[in-house]
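Reading a protein record of the kind used here takes only a little practice. Each token is a code from a learned vocabulary of local backbone shapes. With that in mind, consider the following protein and its fold in token form:
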Amino acid sequence: MQSINRLARTSLVHRARRPRPMTAHTVLLHLLTRRASQLLLCCLMSVCSLGWAQLERTTTGDLVDHHSVQQLMRQARYAEALVQTERYLTEHPRDPQMLFMRATSLMELRRTDEALDQLTALVQQYPELPEPYNNLGVIQASRGQLDLARESFEMALRNHPNYDVALENLGDVLLRQARVAYETSLRINPASKTVPRKLQALPTP
């Protein structure tokens, strides 16, 4: 069966191959679409000037930032990364970058139901971001929910048409759906001359 497992792993960026943090300017744009008041704009501009990667001190006294969590994830230290994201989110509960890294850590720890809940909330809060849709589609495809997975990958591509990871995953879903359709057709009409050739032409996983 065709594998559909290309994750966007550590960052909310157009390409997951070379992850980097979202810029403060990007965060500002995301938040301004939801809060247009002049007072909030002034506050956000102050945050923007500090930079996205600034260290944040939690109530425990530890220093946590996006880069430190990304480093843990690149080292496959997902349990530690999850702890750090949750510390950060106690003070910044709507931070899209950290919410995304929390969801990805949960996926890597096989806590799929929790990851699904987090990604579902994330696409509702920030529907313009493609990476959460991509990872949501990976979970749905792993559960055989191919129609839902296809919709998720298409939503990712609606936001960023050149998002290569989602394009590859969408292609894999379409291949799997094609295989299911051909196999169903062959069961209905075992004497078909064309369907076996089409099935054989499909790439194998």
About this structure: The chain has one domain: 24-201. The CA atoms of residues 31 and 44 lie 8 Å apart.
